[in-house]
Input
Amino acid sequence: MDDLERPSPKGMALRRPSLQPRTRPRVRPPVPTLPRRHTPVDMAWADTGTLCSLALRPPLLSKVLSLYGTSLVVTEAVATEIRRLASVPEARRTADTRLLCTGADSIARHLDAGDIKELPLPTSDDTFNTFDKLDQVLRQLREIDAAAAERSGRSVDRVGSAHRHAGEAHSIVSALRTIAFGRRTLLLTNDGGAMAVAVRNAVPVKHVGHLLAELACHDENVNADQLFDAFTQITRKFATVPMQHQPKDEKSFNCVMKGGSCRLCD
Ligand SMILES: [Zn+2]
Output
């Protein structure tokens, strides 16, 4: 299913609960209940892959930054990861990492300029225990790694897994705290595991394809073909959106705004 489209009520009614016992955690796809059009939030927590992929199209990055304004934020863990990638010297960039590092160069400049704010992991208080939540979210992210490793016959690198998930885990926990304080939030990630964990914790999530689709409804200077092409190009080498969540064609980026409303985007 293309998750830029909404599920049909008919399709949902046909889904029957399974009577088989579950032997491993099930990873469900994000539930696309959010409108395609940009809806203002208080905090949109972006991860490394989403920002660095968007940075490969600077004009589109700056349109997204102006659409989100100060609501687009990163955790310190994500900022650290982006700066680490940006600090890799040219000579040590490989065919696999070069584009990611190029994206990180650009995002690091935006971080330094303060266009994208970096926020520390929230401290615990009576209503929200940050470290319990962090343990829980990391455990869920690792379960997904382990399930993927099992399917492909690989062994799980537990230390690598914990390190790799720091940015995603901190972003999800920060989003959970935003919700706990009754404010509107969004996780911006292209990673299938992070999407699944966000949904499991009732955190709304969008990937870079959704961000580009939001532009279609806000900016008459971009068109659906151009956005679909950008999506395909910027997620080809890294930050690849899982197949089942990818927009399949330019229709996912159409907008039919008329008289201030749009039946496709609202
Ligand atoms: Zn629209």
